[in-house]
Design a protein that fits this description.
Helices cover 70% and strands 4% of the residues. By secondary structure, it is mainly alpha-helical. A 3-stranded antiparallel sheet has the order 1-2-3, with helices on one face.
Amino acid sequence: MRHNLRRFLPSLGGLIRGEVPADTATEAIPVIDEAMAVGILDLAVRIGQTMLATGASASEVTATIVRVSAAYGLGPVHVDVTYNSITASHHRSGAPLPFTLLRVVRQTAPDHDKLRRLQSLVADIGDGLDLGHARTLLREVRRSPFRYGPGIVIVAQATLAVGVAVMFGAGPLTVAVAFFAAGAAAVTQALLSRAQVPYFFSQIAAALVLTLVAALTPLLAMTSIPGGDSVRPSVIVASGVVLMLAGLTVVGAAQDAIDGFALTATGRILELMTQTLGVVLGILAGLQTARVLGLTMEPPSAALPLGSVPLQFAGAALIAIAVAVFNGAGLRIVVVSAILSVVAWLGFLAASGIGLEIAAASGIGAFAGSFIGVLAAYRLHVPAVAITTAAILPMVPGAAVFRGLLGIVESGDNPQIMLEGFGTLAAAAVIGVSLAVGASLGIYLGQPVRASLGGVVRARARLRR
């Protein structure tokens, strides 16, 4: 009887208390007071501020701020991103008023290596990084200098012009002059930037220097330099135009407009138009100056022909590498950008081969590069905007812009040539819009596919565990 009672009582106690497995994990619910909530929100907004300043889109910045806040248990958080400021607010339950933080983005310059480090930091925060350690790492990222020195950046900018010249099948002398002209324009912009001259006037000055160098190239025919009579000024100016349009946020502006961030998109589009106008005014001033000096250039009657297909691919890859370098990218982003530029140009050639117009073919090439770029960015942990920008740049219509401007300046009293010049400029603008739309569509359609792949990867990881 006593033996049965001893067996029954532990069973009854286990029934009342319930069996607790020894390996059951307990999760501590964080207690977030007001000071901690402010610290979490400040960290999230500072990360978003740095991302916006280094080239991320407004939607990506908003999602990151919400994600970082949620990782530390703070929610809901309401975020408002404009062109030059970020506002985030959190209303605690039962509190009479919410607390709100505002950060101003004073200067924007692409820095894709810093953007990659920020994305890595956000991933670590999602994996449970301590708040204090996250603040320390963010401070290190924000204070880190640009990856490359001014000399390397100028050489990379001049190399971009070499890539454009190679795509047009230019000879060695034309390539060398294009490198020199673009380098002179890059040095001009660097000096004016150090003097804190607004970027609009910097664009005018650089385009003026570039055009004057190109106007002087016919003088090479009077020398004994081999190939001096075969230098094409149009190729030199077209190379420089692509260089000066390389830093513009075409994809970011279009993506913000599509995502519904109207104010941010309007600011970026206005900046894009202003800086493009600076290039146009600089080229016009250079052409008029050359005309006064007696160095006239005849407007080409047709579009500049491209070189052979291998040269086109080589030039596209060289352009992408140069863009990635002077945007501060590391080796991984540089290699991926070169590969994607070849993919985008292959899409352009395939679309052109079936009879599509240049604008439509450019949009398809940009779509192919950006769609594959979004997927590659997820797998390789690099910013999508970094490799997408470099991939579509070989399709920027720099030659068409110069041909239209040259036709307008040299038209004189001939209205037909002037109308042809305006028509060429309008066609170049359509190509630019097509590039922006194609790249944005590729990013828009690639994001859900990337999310699905991410879900599959996480599910497989859980199964392996």
